[in-house]
Amino acid sequence: MSDATSDVVIVGGGIIGLSVAWNLARQGVSVTVLERSQVGDGASNASAGMLAPLAEANRPGPFLALGVASLRLYPSFVATLHEETGVSAECASPGLLRVAVNEEESAEFCTATWQQAAGLPVEYLDGDAARNLEPTLSESVIAAVLSPDEKQYDPSRLVRMLALACASRGVRIVECAPVIGFETSDGRVTGVRTATDVYSCGDVVIAAGAWADQVAEWLGASLPVFPVRGQILALQCTPSPVKYTIYAHAGYIVPRVDGRVLVGATAEYGVGFDTRPTAVGMTTLLQAAASLVPPLMQAPFDRVWAGLRPGCADNLPIFGLLPGWENVHLAAGHFRNGVLLAPITGEIVAGLVTGAQPHALLESFRAERFAEAQ
User: Fold this and answer.
1) Which residue segment(s) compose the domain that 308 sits in?
2) Residues 55, 351: Cα–Cα separation, whole Å
3) pTM metric for this prediction
4) Deepest in the core among 29, 49, 52, 185, taking most CB within 10 A?
């Protein structure tokens, strides 16, 4: 048995779990985070770190509202983390260019009035105007939307900031501690078991990314969360041929402060928990780079890597109680938007754990929606 009881044990030390931990600790809640590997080693560090709710949503609805709300939290989120840690978040891009290479993509990306109605500033550009901003864009680009508020951050740096901020507030972070089960009593979890210890607690948060369903199974529950492999490659470009984050149907291009340019990303279903990059994945990414920014094909190769995104059956995250349990809370199913949704998820889930008034955006994301659909 661990030598101390925490108010809350969080299963998962990625950007979602750490954001929940930080929000709880700021309210004086004692927290232990159990991470199966090292913090951020899962989907968080495999992400490109884009904050792009307009590109990810594609239409009005609950996800767009959640993503825009989280994006608006980001300035205060990173400013407060910087104050607490002294680490800079390094926002590398002046915004996002969502580009189209044919009329069908133009209709999807570049003419929808709902993008303006979402409340973020956007500007519609033809292909020549887009190349005036980014001269290395392919001649195949016929239209674009400039979205200056949709930026990007290095997720590994955000994870580091959160981990440091959590530690400074007394959060206990235990790495290399995969959860293997739970201690329970009368519909409540009283302890979380690893191979070496049992961590006593008042509440549990499952923020285990692609492993969320496996964790829920130990409590006799099922979550429609599954691994989706995403491969990304990095090229070394000094100076970078692009300033903006470029987002297209074929993929995305993300310039970094350190001179790298990221090209992403695949979305591979049915591969299980295999995180090995593949030749076909790399080929797909190189083709995307060539189709969007042709000069990238002359850039020196840096590396390629892959991570497991937590896919969800309806492509929406899951918050609220795990059905059948009084004190097991969910922060799951964020797919490729964990970085974008970290601030809002931290607020929503911390509020649920502490019994605060439920967030106005919560209802569309409760786990009960899957039982109701059956």
Assistant:
1) 93-150+226-312
2) 28
3) 0.95
4) 49
353 in Cβ contact with 29 (< 8 Å): yes
DSSP three-state, residue 345: helix
Q: Which two tokens stand for residue 137?
A: 């864009």
Peptide bond preceding 294: is omega within 30 degrees of 0, i.e. cis?
no
Q: Which residue has the tokens 């340019």?
A: 261
Tell me if 1 sits within 8 A of 182, measured CB to CB.
no
285 three-class SS = helix
Domain boundary residue, one of 294, 312, 330: 312
Cα-trace Rg, the chain: 21
Measured in whole angstroms, how far is the alpha carbon of residue 315 from the centre of its chain? Answer: 13
Residues found in the chain = 374
Give the end of a domain, one of 274, 290, 312.
312
201: Cβ contacts below 8 Å, ≥ 6 apart: 5, 6, 7, 8, 9, 32, 189, 190, 191, 192
